[in-house]
RNA sequence: GUCCCGUUCAUCUAGAGGCCUAGGAUCCCAGCCUUUCACGCUGGUUACAGGGGUUCGACUCCCCUACGGGACGCCA
Protein backbone atom coordinates (compact mmCIF):
# COMPACT_ATOMS: atom_id res chain seq x y z
CA UNK A 1 0.00 0.00 0.00
CA UNK A 2 1.38 3.41 -0.91
CA UNK A 3 1.88 5.88 1.85
CA UNK A 4 -0.62 8.68 1.72
CA UNK A 5 -1.09 11.81 3.81
CA UNK A 6 -3.58 14.60 3.63
CA UNK A 7 -4.20 18.18 4.62
CA UNK A 8 -7.83 18.77 5.55
CA UNK A 9 -8.60 22.40 6.40
CA UNK A 10 -12.06 23.73 6.99
CA UNK A 11 -12.80 26.74 4.78
CA UNK A 12 -13.77 29.20 7.46
CA UNK A 13 -10.91 31.64 6.90
CA UNK A 14 -7.58 32.13 5.18
CA UNK A 15 -4.66 29.68 5.32
CA UNK A 16 -2.78 30.65 8.46
CA UNK A 17 0.79 29.78 9.39
CA UNK A 18 -0.24 27.03 11.77
CA UNK A 19 -2.26 25.27 9.12
CA UNK A 20 0.47 25.88 6.59
CA UNK A 21 3.02 24.17 8.80
CA UNK A 22 0.76 21.18 9.34
CA UNK A 23 0.30 21.01 5.59
CA UNK A 24 4.06 21.29 5.10
CA UNK A 25 4.78 18.42 7.50
CA UNK A 26 2.17 16.24 5.80
CA UNK A 27 3.51 17.13 2.40
CA UNK A 28 7.12 16.49 3.42
CA UNK A 29 6.27 13.15 4.95
CA UNK A 30 4.57 12.06 1.73
CA UNK A 31 7.37 13.36 -0.48
CA UNK A 32 10.09 11.87 1.70
CA UNK A 33 8.57 8.41 1.38
CA UNK A 34 7.57 8.73 -2.25
CA UNK A 35 3.92 8.69 -1.24
CA UNK A 36 0.94 10.79 -2.20
CA UNK A 37 -0.49 13.96 -0.73
CA UNK A 38 -4.20 14.71 -0.70
CA UNK A 39 -6.02 18.00 -0.19
CA UNK A 40 -9.48 17.74 1.28
CA UNK A 41 -11.78 20.63 2.08
CA UNK A 42 -13.82 19.93 5.21
CA UNK A 43 -16.83 22.06 4.50
CA UNK A 44 -19.57 20.19 6.33
CA UNK A 45 -20.25 23.26 8.45
CA UNK A 46 -22.59 24.85 5.94
CA UNK A 47 -23.00 27.91 8.12
CA UNK A 48 -19.40 28.99 8.22
CA UNK A 49 -17.78 27.57 5.09
CA UNK A 50 -17.26 30.00 2.24
CA UNK A 51 -16.01 29.85 -1.33
CA UNK A 52 -13.66 32.77 -0.62
CA UNK A 53 -11.99 30.77 2.11
CA UNK A 54 -11.55 27.82 -0.23
CA UNK A 55 -9.88 30.13 -2.73
CA UNK A 56 -7.69 31.68 -0.06
CA UNK A 57 -6.50 28.25 1.05
CA UNK A 58 -5.81 27.11 -2.50
CA UNK A 59 -3.95 30.34 -3.20
CA UNK A 60 -1.80 29.90 -0.11
CA UNK A 61 -0.95 26.31 -0.94
CA UNK A 62 0.01 27.32 -4.47
CA UNK A 63 2.18 30.20 -3.34
CA UNK A 64 4.06 27.93 -0.94
CA UNK A 65 4.43 25.28 -3.61
CA UNK A 66 2.68 22.57 -1.63
CA UNK A 67 1.24 20.80 -4.61
CA UNK A 68 -1.19 17.98 -4.00
CA UNK A 69 -1.51 14.75 -5.93
CA UNK A 70 -5.22 14.27 -5.33
CA UNK A 71 -8.07 16.64 -4.71
CA UNK A 72 -9.20 19.05 -3.67
CA UNK A 73 -12.04 16.86 -2.47
CA UNK A 74 -15.07 18.48 -0.93
CA UNK A 75 -16.97 16.79 1.86
CA UNK A 76 -20.20 18.43 0.81
CA UNK A 77 -20.01 16.32 -2.35
CA UNK A 78 -19.91 13.14 -0.35
CA UNK A 79 -23.02 13.28 1.79
CA UNK A 80 -24.51 10.19 0.16
CA UNK A 81 -21.51 8.18 1.19
CA UNK A 82 -21.61 9.44 4.79
CA UNK A 83 -25.29 8.64 5.03
CA UNK A 84 -24.62 5.18 3.75
CA UNK A 85 -22.09 4.63 6.53
CA UNK A 86 -24.36 6.11 9.19
CA UNK A 87 -27.23 3.89 8.07
CA UNK A 88 -24.99 0.85 8.20
CA UNK A 89 -23.98 1.77 11.74
CA UNK A 90 -27.64 2.21 12.65
CA UNK A 91 -28.54 -1.12 11.17
CA UNK A 92 -25.83 -2.90 13.11
CA UNK A 93 -26.98 -1.27 16.32
CA UNK A 94 -23.72 0.64 16.59
CA UNK A 95 -25.55 3.94 16.43
CA UNK A 96 -28.91 5.11 17.67
CA UNK A 97 -31.46 7.89 17.38
CA UNK A 98 -31.51 10.45 20.14
CA UNK A 99 -34.30 12.96 20.70
CA UNK A 100 -32.85 14.80 23.67
CA UNK A 101 -33.56 18.50 23.45
CA UNK A 102 -30.82 21.08 23.51
CA UNK A 103 -32.32 22.34 26.74
CA UNK A 104 -31.96 18.96 28.41
CA UNK A 105 -28.39 18.68 27.20
CA UNK A 106 -27.59 22.16 28.44
CA UNK A 107 -29.01 21.40 31.87
CA UNK A 108 -27.12 18.13 32.01
CA UNK A 109 -23.87 19.89 31.22
CA UNK A 110 -24.40 22.47 33.92
CA UNK A 111 -25.15 19.84 36.52
CA UNK A 112 -22.07 17.87 35.60
CA UNK A 113 -19.86 20.93 35.73
CA UNK A 114 -21.30 21.83 39.12
CA UNK A 115 -20.53 18.31 40.32
CA UNK A 116 -16.94 18.78 39.05
CA UNK A 117 -17.34 16.16 36.40
CA UNK A 118 -16.37 16.17 32.78
CA UNK A 119 -19.50 17.17 30.86
CA UNK A 120 -20.69 14.40 28.59
CA UNK A 121 -23.83 12.83 27.20
CA UNK A 122 -25.46 10.48 29.69
CA UNK A 123 -26.80 7.91 27.21
CA UNK A 124 -30.40 8.82 27.92
CA UNK A 125 -31.62 7.63 24.49
CA UNK A 126 -29.13 4.84 24.12
CA UNK A 127 -31.78 2.14 24.58
CA UNK A 128 -34.97 4.11 24.08
CA UNK A 129 -35.59 3.17 20.46
CA UNK A 130 -36.58 6.68 19.35
CA UNK A 131 -38.90 6.73 16.34
CA UNK A 132 -37.43 7.98 13.03
CA UNK A 133 -40.46 10.26 12.74
CA UNK A 134 -39.52 12.27 15.81
CA UNK A 135 -36.94 15.07 15.40
CA UNK A 136 -33.62 13.42 16.31
CA UNK A 137 -29.90 13.18 15.86
CA UNK A 138 -27.89 10.00 15.41
CA UNK A 139 -25.33 9.14 18.05
CA UNK A 140 -22.51 6.64 17.87
CA UNK A 141 -22.74 3.91 20.49
CA UNK A 142 -19.31 4.25 22.05
CA UNK A 143 -17.99 1.24 23.98
CA UNK A 144 -18.56 1.56 27.73
CA UNK A 145 -15.64 -0.49 28.92
CA UNK A 146 -11.94 -0.69 28.32
CA UNK A 147 -9.62 1.89 26.88
CA UNK A 148 -8.46 3.09 23.51
CA UNK A 149 -4.77 3.12 22.89
CA UNK A 150 -2.64 4.24 19.99
CA UNK A 151 0.99 4.93 19.19
CA UNK A 152 1.35 8.52 18.13
CA UNK A 153 4.29 8.87 15.77
CA UNK A 154 5.38 12.03 17.56
CA UNK A 155 4.29 11.46 21.16
CA UNK A 156 4.38 7.75 21.65
CA UNK A 157 1.68 5.86 23.48
CA UNK A 158 -1.55 7.67 24.26
CA UNK A 159 -4.38 5.91 26.05
CA UNK A 160 -7.83 7.09 27.03
CA UNK A 161 -10.45 5.18 28.96
CA UNK A 162 -13.75 4.65 27.16
CA UNK A 163 -15.42 5.88 30.31
CA UNK A 164 -14.14 9.34 29.36
CA UNK A 165 -15.81 9.23 25.99
CA UNK A 166 -19.49 9.83 25.39
CA UNK A 167 -21.81 8.94 22.54
CA UNK A 168 -20.98 11.54 19.98
CA UNK A 169 -23.41 12.89 17.43
CA UNK A 170 -22.62 11.67 13.94
CA UNK A 171 -25.69 13.06 12.18
CA UNK A 172 -27.34 16.35 13.01
CA UNK A 173 -31.08 16.85 13.20
CA UNK A 174 -30.93 18.49 9.78
CA UNK A 175 -29.52 15.24 8.41
CA UNK A 176 -25.96 16.45 7.83
CA UNK A 177 -23.01 14.37 9.07
CA UNK A 178 -20.54 15.73 11.62
CA UNK A 179 -16.78 16.06 11.62
CA UNK A 180 -15.75 12.97 13.57
CA UNK A 181 -17.73 10.75 11.24
CA UNK A 182 -16.75 12.38 7.95
CA UNK A 183 -13.08 12.49 8.76
CA UNK A 184 -13.04 8.77 9.47
CA UNK A 185 -15.01 7.85 6.37
CA UNK A 186 -12.84 10.06 4.16
CA UNK A 187 -9.52 8.97 5.58
CA UNK A 188 -10.58 5.39 5.08
CA UNK A 189 -12.06 5.82 1.60
CA UNK A 190 -9.13 7.89 0.38
CA UNK A 191 -6.61 5.37 1.63
CA UNK A 192 -4.89 7.76 4.04
CA UNK A 193 -2.15 5.81 5.84
CA UNK A 194 -0.80 8.64 7.99
CA UNK A 195 -3.01 11.21 9.62
CA UNK A 196 -0.81 14.22 10.42
CA UNK A 197 -2.67 17.07 12.10
CA UNK A 198 -2.61 19.60 14.92
CA UNK A 199 -2.51 18.31 18.47
CA UNK A 200 -5.87 19.89 19.17
CA UNK A 201 -7.15 16.67 17.58
CA UNK A 202 -5.53 14.34 20.09
CA UNK A 203 -8.74 14.20 22.08
CA UNK A 204 -10.76 13.27 19.00
CA UNK A 205 -8.50 10.42 18.05
CA UNK A 206 -9.77 7.76 20.49
CA UNK A 207 -13.39 8.22 19.46
CA UNK A 208 -12.39 8.15 15.83
CA UNK A 209 -10.54 4.91 16.44
CA UNK A 210 -13.72 3.49 17.93
CA UNK A 211 -15.52 4.49 14.76
CA UNK A 212 -12.90 2.76 12.59
CA UNK A 213 -13.29 -0.36 14.67
CA UNK A 214 -17.08 -0.25 14.53
CA UNK A 215 -16.85 -0.21 10.76
CA UNK A 216 -14.23 -2.93 10.75
CA UNK A 217 -11.72 -0.66 9.02
CA UNK A 218 -8.00 -0.55 9.41
CA UNK A 219 -6.86 2.28 11.69
CA UNK A 220 -4.26 4.62 10.15
CA UNK A 221 -1.12 5.91 11.86
CA UNK A 222 -1.48 9.19 13.72
CA UNK A 223 1.01 12.01 14.24
CA UNK A 224 -0.06 15.05 16.22
CA UNK A 225 2.08 18.12 15.72
CA UNK A 226 2.25 20.78 18.44
CA UNK A 227 0.56 24.13 18.01
CA UNK A 228 2.17 27.40 17.07
CA UNK A 229 1.68 30.09 19.69
CA UNK A 230 1.67 33.86 19.29
CA UNK A 231 4.45 36.00 20.77
CA UNK A 232 2.47 36.27 24.01
CA UNK A 233 2.29 32.51 24.42
CA UNK A 234 -1.40 32.15 23.64
CA UNK A 235 -2.87 30.38 20.68
CA UNK A 236 -2.02 32.17 17.45
CA UNK A 237 -4.80 34.41 16.22
CA UNK A 238 -5.53 37.53 14.23
CA UNK A 239 -4.52 39.80 17.04
CA UNK A 240 -0.94 38.57 16.70
CA UNK A 241 -0.59 40.44 13.43
CA UNK A 242 0.08 38.62 10.21
CA UNK A 243 -1.03 35.04 10.50
CA UNK A 244 -2.37 34.61 7.00
CA UNK A 245 0.15 33.07 4.67
CA UNK A 246 -0.74 35.50 1.89
CA UNK A 247 -0.07 38.43 4.17
CA UNK A 248 3.54 37.34 4.30
CA UNK A 249 3.64 37.48 0.53
CA UNK A 250 2.33 41.03 0.65
CA UNK A 251 4.90 41.98 3.25
CA UNK A 252 7.70 40.87 0.97
CA UNK A 253 8.64 37.42 2.19
CA UNK A 254 9.79 34.72 -0.19
CA UNK A 255 7.80 31.49 -0.05
CA UNK A 256 10.97 29.44 0.41
CA UNK A 257 11.94 31.59 3.41
CA UNK A 258 8.55 31.11 5.05
CA UNK A 259 8.75 27.38 4.35
CA UNK A 260 12.23 27.25 5.85
CA UNK A 261 11.08 29.14 8.92
CA UNK A 262 8.04 26.95 9.35
CA UNK A 263 9.89 23.68 8.96
CA UNK A 264 12.26 24.68 11.76
CA UNK A 265 9.39 25.48 14.05
CA UNK A 266 9.00 22.19 15.83
CA UNK A 267 11.34 20.20 13.65
CA UNK A 268 15.11 20.11 13.50
CA UNK A 269 17.97 18.26 11.90
CA UNK A 270 20.93 18.81 14.20
CA UNK A 271 22.16 22.40 14.03
CA UNK A 272 21.20 23.05 10.43
CA UNK A 273 19.17 26.23 9.91
CA UNK A 274 18.91 26.66 6.16
CA UNK A 275 17.12 24.02 4.14
CA UNK A 276 16.26 24.03 0.47
CA UNK A 277 12.98 22.32 -0.28
CA UNK A 278 14.89 19.30 -1.61
CA UNK A 279 16.89 19.09 1.61
CA UNK A 280 13.72 19.29 3.68
CA UNK A 281 12.23 16.42 1.73
CA UNK A 282 15.38 14.38 2.08
CA UNK A 283 15.83 14.93 5.82
CA UNK A 284 12.32 15.28 7.17
CA UNK A 285 11.35 12.63 9.67
CA UNK A 286 8.38 12.70 12.03
CA UNK A 287 10.52 11.31 14.81
CA UNK A 288 12.46 14.59 14.86
CA UNK A 289 9.35 16.65 15.46
CA UNK A 290 9.14 18.29 18.87
CA UNK A 291 6.32 17.66 21.31
CA UNK A 292 6.18 21.10 22.86
CA UNK A 293 4.36 24.03 21.25
CA UNK A 294 6.52 26.80 19.81
CA UNK A 295 6.26 30.55 19.52
CA UNK A 296 6.21 32.34 16.21
CA UNK A 297 9.12 34.77 16.02
CA UNK A 298 9.11 37.33 13.23
CA UNK A 299 12.73 38.40 13.86
CA UNK A 300 14.08 35.06 12.86
CA UNK A 301 11.77 34.84 9.86
CA UNK A 302 13.19 38.18 8.72
CA UNK A 303 16.72 36.97 9.07
CA UNK A 304 15.94 33.89 7.02
CA UNK A 305 14.18 35.99 4.40
CA UNK A 306 17.24 38.19 4.09
CA UNK A 307 19.42 35.12 3.66
CA UNK A 308 17.20 34.00 0.80
CA UNK A 309 17.27 37.46 -0.78
CA UNK A 310 21.07 37.59 -0.54
CA UNK A 311 21.79 34.09 -1.73
CA UNK A 312 18.89 33.57 -4.11
CA UNK A 313 19.04 33.96 -7.87
CA UNK A 314 19.11 37.75 -8.47
CA UNK A 315 16.91 37.41 -11.54
CA UNK A 316 14.27 35.66 -9.47
CA UNK A 317 14.54 38.22 -6.66
CA UNK A 318 14.21 40.99 -9.26
CA UNK A 319 11.11 39.32 -10.63
CA UNK A 320 9.62 39.11 -7.13
CA UNK A 321 10.52 42.65 -6.09
CA UNK A 322 9.12 44.17 -9.25
CA UNK A 323 5.47 44.31 -8.09
CA UNK A 324 6.61 45.98 -4.88
CA UNK A 325 8.32 48.65 -6.96
CA UNK A 326 5.01 49.02 -8.75
CA UNK A 327 3.34 49.61 -5.39
CA UNK A 328 5.63 52.62 -4.98
CA UNK A 329 4.57 53.92 -8.36
CA UNK A 330 7.81 52.92 -10.02
CA UNK A 331 8.14 51.12 -13.32
CA UNK A 332 11.44 49.25 -13.08
CA UNK A 333 11.65 49.10 -16.85
CA UNK A 334 12.28 52.88 -16.82
CA UNK A 335 15.77 53.00 -15.39
CA UNK A 336 18.71 50.74 -14.61
CA UNK A 337 18.47 46.98 -15.03
CA UNK A 338 16.54 45.74 -11.99
CA UNK A 339 18.71 42.64 -11.73
CA UNK A 340 21.80 44.84 -11.33
CA UNK A 341 20.02 46.94 -8.74
CA UNK A 342 19.06 43.82 -6.82
CA UNK A 343 22.66 42.61 -6.83
CA UNK A 344 23.78 46.01 -5.57
CA UNK A 345 21.18 46.39 -2.84
CA UNK A 346 20.18 42.94 -1.65
CA UNK A 347 22.27 42.59 1.50
CA UNK A 348 20.64 45.76 2.79
CA UNK A 349 17.05 44.51 2.89
CA UNK A 350 15.26 41.89 4.95
CA UNK A 351 12.09 41.90 2.87
CA UNK A 352 11.18 42.61 -0.73
CA UNK A 353 9.21 45.63 0.45
CA UNK A 354 12.34 47.07 2.06
CA UNK A 355 14.36 46.20 -1.01
CA UNK A 356 11.93 48.17 -3.15
CA UNK A 357 12.02 51.13 -0.78
CA UNK A 358 15.79 51.43 -0.59
CA UNK A 359 16.06 51.01 -4.35
CA UNK A 360 13.59 53.68 -5.32
CA UNK A 361 16.26 56.37 -5.76
CA UNK A 362 17.72 54.56 -8.75
CA UNK A 363 14.48 55.19 -10.61
CA UNK A 364 13.28 58.57 -9.44
CA UNK A 365 14.47 61.61 -7.55
CA UNK A 366 13.84 61.34 -3.84
CA UNK A 367 11.52 63.78 -2.10
CA UNK A 368 13.87 64.92 0.61
CA UNK A 369 17.19 64.15 2.27
CA UNK A 370 17.45 61.87 5.24
CA UNK A 371 17.86 64.44 7.98
CA UNK A 372 20.72 62.80 9.86
CA UNK A 373 22.65 61.92 6.73
CA UNK A 374 22.28 65.40 5.30
CA UNK A 375 23.35 67.07 8.51
CA UNK A 376 26.49 64.99 8.64
CA UNK A 377 27.43 65.07 4.97
CA UNK A 378 26.51 68.62 4.00
CA UNK A 379 28.52 70.51 6.57
CA UNK A 380 31.66 72.57 6.08
CA UNK A 381 33.02 72.81 2.57
CA UNK A 382 30.69 70.19 1.17
CA UNK A 383 29.39 72.42 -1.60
CA UNK A 384 32.96 73.10 -2.77
CA UNK A 385 33.68 69.40 -2.88
CA UNK A 386 30.50 68.76 -4.82
CA UNK A 387 31.27 71.50 -7.30
CA UNK A 388 34.74 70.08 -7.87
CA UNK A 389 33.63 66.53 -8.31
CA UNK A 390 30.74 67.57 -10.55
CA UNK A 391 33.16 69.17 -12.96
CA UNK A 392 35.19 65.99 -13.27
CA UNK A 393 32.13 63.78 -13.56
CA UNK A 394 30.55 65.96 -16.19
CA UNK A 395 33.69 65.65 -18.28
CA UNK A 396 33.57 61.87 -18.24
CA UNK A 397 32.99 60.18 -21.55
CA UNK A 398 32.47 56.74 -20.20
CA UNK A 399 30.00 56.43 -17.28
CA UNK A 400 31.52 53.21 -15.98
CA UNK A 401 32.71 52.24 -12.53
CA UNK A 402 36.46 52.60 -13.11
CA UNK A 403 36.41 56.10 -14.58
CA UNK A 404 33.82 57.16 -12.03
CA UNK A 405 36.02 55.98 -9.22
CA UNK A 406 38.98 57.72 -10.82
CA UNK A 407 37.07 60.98 -11.03
CA UNK A 408 36.31 60.87 -7.33
CA UNK A 409 39.88 60.02 -6.28
CA UNK A 410 41.24 62.70 -8.58
CA UNK A 411 38.99 65.23 -6.92
CA UNK A 412 40.09 64.08 -3.49
CA UNK A 413 43.72 64.46 -4.50
CA UNK A 414 43.25 67.88 -6.09
CA UNK A 415 41.46 69.15 -2.99
CA UNK A 416 43.97 67.56 -0.68
CA UNK A 417 41.27 66.24 1.65
CA UNK A 418 40.20 62.83 2.96
CA UNK A 419 38.17 60.55 0.75
CA UNK A 420 35.09 60.95 2.88
CA UNK A 421 35.05 64.72 2.42
CA UNK A 422 34.07 64.18 -1.18
CA UNK A 423 32.43 60.78 -1.07
CA UNK A 424 29.99 61.46 1.77
CA UNK A 425 28.36 64.58 0.33
CA UNK A 426 28.31 62.99 -3.10
CA UNK A 427 26.62 59.87 -1.82
CA UNK A 428 23.96 61.78 0.05
CA UNK A 429 23.46 64.13 -2.88
CA UNK A 430 22.74 61.20 -5.17
CA UNK A 431 20.90 58.81 -2.83
CA UNK A 432 19.26 61.18 -0.40
CA UNK A 433 20.76 59.14 2.39
CA UNK A 434 19.30 55.80 1.43
CA UNK A 435 21.52 52.77 2.08
CA UNK A 436 23.62 52.19 -1.02
CA UNK A 437 26.59 50.16 -2.25
CA UNK A 438 30.06 51.28 -3.40
CA UNK A 439 29.92 54.86 -4.58
CA UNK A 440 31.09 54.17 -8.12
CA UNK A 441 28.52 51.41 -8.54
CA UNK A 442 25.83 53.69 -7.18
CA UNK A 443 26.73 56.48 -9.59
CA UNK A 444 26.94 54.04 -12.46
CA UNK A 445 23.45 52.71 -11.81
CA UNK A 446 21.85 56.07 -11.13
CA UNK A 447 23.22 57.33 -14.45
CA UNK A 448 24.88 60.48 -15.66
CA UNK A 449 21.88 62.69 -16.06
CA UNK A 450 20.31 62.04 -12.68
CA UNK A 451 23.68 62.18 -10.92
CA UNK A 452 24.55 65.64 -12.23
CA UNK A 453 21.06 66.90 -11.63
CA UNK A 454 21.09 65.73 -8.03
CA UNK A 455 24.53 67.24 -7.39
CA UNK A 456 23.23 70.60 -8.54
CA UNK A 457 20.24 70.22 -6.31
CA UNK A 458 22.46 69.41 -3.36
CA UNK A 459 24.70 72.43 -3.91
CA UNK A 460 21.61 74.58 -4.00
CA UNK A 461 20.28 72.93 -0.88
CA UNK A 462 23.51 73.52 1.02
CA UNK A 463 23.73 77.16 0.07
CA UNK A 464 20.14 77.94 0.87
CA UNK A 465 20.48 76.26 4.24
CA UNK A 466 23.53 78.08 5.40
C1' G B 1 -13.95 21.45 37.15
C1' U B 2 -12.67 16.67 34.44
C1' C B 3 -9.55 14.38 30.85
C1' C B 4 -5.38 14.68 27.38
C1' C B 5 -0.68 16.83 26.04
C1' G B 6 3.58 19.53 27.22
C1' U B 7 7.99 22.21 30.19
C1' U B 8 16.56 23.31 27.95
C1' C B 9 18.97 30.74 26.99
C1' A B 10 14.07 36.41 25.52
C1' U B 11 12.76 33.16 20.91
C1' C B 12 13.64 28.55 17.58
C1' U B 13 16.34 24.42 18.95
C1' A B 14 20.82 20.31 19.81
C1' G B 15 20.98 16.80 23.59
C1' A B 16 18.34 9.54 23.14
C1' G B 17 22.60 8.17 31.61
C1' G B 18 28.82 9.76 31.76
C1' C B 19 31.22 13.21 25.25
C1' C B 20 27.64 19.01 29.06
C1' U B 21 32.31 23.75 33.09
C1' A B 22 24.88 22.22 28.25
C1' G B 23 26.17 23.18 21.65
C1' G B 24 23.99 26.01 17.28
C1' A B 25 20.65 29.93 15.27
C1' U B 26 17.76 34.60 15.89
C1' C B 27 17.66 38.89 19.01
C1' C B 28 20.74 42.15 22.08
C1' C B 29 25.77 44.25 23.37
C1' A B 30 31.07 45.17 22.13
C1' G B 31 35.01 45.12 18.58
C1' C B 32 36.90 44.47 13.51
C1' C B 33 35.96 45.64 8.29
C1' U B 34 34.34 50.48 5.99
C1' U B 35 33.20 56.40 1.55
C1' U B 36 26.88 55.72 4.01
C1' C B 37 23.88 51.63 5.39
C1' A B 38 24.21 46.76 5.42
C1' C B 39 26.59 42.06 4.70
C1' G B 40 30.62 39.45 6.81
C1' C B 41 34.03 38.22 10.79
C1' U B 42 35.45 37.93 16.17
C1' G B 43 33.91 38.01 21.10
C1' G B 44 30.15 38.56 25.07
C1' U B 45 25.48 38.31 28.36
C1' U B 46 21.43 34.56 29.03
C1' A B 47 18.66 28.20 29.93
C1' C B 48 18.09 22.16 31.88
C1' A B 49 10.47 24.87 36.14
C1' G B 50 10.72 22.96 41.55
C1' G B 51 10.96 18.73 44.82
C1' G B 52 11.62 13.67 45.63
C1' G B 53 13.43 9.00 44.00
C1' U B 54 16.35 5.09 40.63
C1' U B 55 21.79 4.94 39.62
C1' C B 56 28.65 4.86 40.99
C1' G B 57 26.63 8.99 37.90
C1' A B 58 20.79 12.34 35.53
C1' C B 59 19.21 17.70 31.05
C1' U B 60 18.41 12.67 29.80
C1' C B 61 14.52 7.18 33.47
C1' C B 62 10.20 7.13 37.40
C1' C B 63 6.83 9.87 40.82
C1' C B 64 4.73 14.35 42.86
C1' U B 65 3.98 19.66 42.62
C1' A B 66 3.83 24.11 39.85
C1' C B 67 3.08 26.38 35.35
C1' G B 68 1.45 26.43 30.11
C1' G B 69 -1.58 24.57 26.16
C1' G B 70 -5.61 21.66 24.28
C1' A B 71 -10.31 19.05 24.55
C1' C B 72 -14.93 18.63 26.88
C1' G B 73 -20.30 21.71 20.53
C1' C B 74 -26.26 19.26 16.49
C1' C B 75 -17.47 23.62 14.96
C1' A B 76 -13.74 21.40 12.36
Give the key terms.
single chain; 466 residues; mainly alpha; Rossmann fold; three-stranded parallel beta sheet; 47% helix; 11% strand; RNA-binding
Q: Would you state the CATH class of the largest domain?
A: Alpha Beta
Q: What's the arrangement of strands in the largest beta sheet? A: 1-2-3
The number of distinct structural domains comes to 4
Q: Per the principal axes of the C-alpha atoms, what is the gross shape?
A: elongated
Q: Superfamily at the CATH H level of the largest domain?
A: HUPs
- Major sheet: size, sense and barrel closure? 3 strands, parallel
Write a structural description.
By secondary structure, this protein is mostly helical. The chain folds into 4 domains: 4-76 and 228-298, HUPs (Rossmann fold); 78-225, Rossmann fold; 312-362; 371-464, Arc Repressor Mutant, subunit A (Orthogonal Bundle), CATH 1.10.10.350. 47% of the residues lie in helices and 11% in strands. It has 19 helices and 12 strands. A 3-stranded parallel beta sheet has the order 1-2-3, covered by helices on one side. The longest helix is centred in the last third of the chain and has 17 residues, at 448-464. The radius of gyration is 32 Å and the shape is elongated. The model has no long low-confidence stretch (mean pLDDT 92).
